[in-house]
From TrEMBL:
Residues 27-72 form the DUF1648 domain. This is DUF1648 domain-containing protein. It comes from Bizionia sediminis. InterPro entries: DUF1648. The keyword Transmembrane applies. The keyword Transmembrane helix applies.
Length: 173
């Protein structure tokens, strides 16, 4: 493979890295526990899809609320586990022994923040599904709506900005 020659470095997570990882999994666990405690009080049909305005457009059995965690936990854990192998990531520049540690640190930090943002999205969605299910209102709250939109934009634009910033810094050196 083309990255066989990349240095394999045992990166030690920084305090920030550990904090982000703990926060990420903590959010998912708290949202899961919240859903567990609220599950029996949910109606048989709950909203499972919301349009761009935040209005519920599809209702399913309340058992479908678990799909958030069936999808969310493996995705988040997969990103966490993948951070153990930064030499397998794609990079916008050639990885050498001189730049490997810095590049790997930036890449794993970016992956951690992507995981955190995805955990926030899953958490807000699950809380809003429970909240909307228990009320006559068929819309997610405006605050949650804006949070989800902002997180999706950050998740989309953030990595691109990070790559462009890195390439710009590389040209200066």
């Amino acid at each position: 493979m083309f990255f066989d020659n990349r240095p394999k470095i045992d990166l030690k997570p920084t305090k920030l890295d550990r904090y982000v990882d703990i926060t990420t999994f903590g959010l998912l666990i708290l949202a899961f526990l919240y859903t567990c405690f609220q599950y029996n009080s949910l109606p048989e049909l709950i909203p499972m899809h919301f349009n761009f305005d935040g209005t519920a457009t599809r209702y399913d059995s309340k058992d479908m609320i678990w799909i958030i965690y069936i999808i969310g936990f493996p995705i988040i854990y997969g990103g966490y586990y993948l951070n153990k192998f930064p030499h397998l990531f794609n990079y916008p520049t050639k990885i050498t022994a001189e730049n490997a540690k810095t590049m790997y640190q930036h890449a794993t930090r970016l992956m951690r923040f992507i995981n955190l943002i995805m955990a926030l999205i899953f958490t807000v969605l699950s809380i809003e599904i429970v909240r909307v299910s228990k009320q006559d209102n068929q819309q997610i709250s405006q605050v949650a709506h804006y949070i989800i939109i902002a997180l999706v934009v950050i998740l989309t634009v953030g990595p691109l900005v990070s790559i462009l910033w890195h390439l710009k810094a590389k040209k200066r050196n």
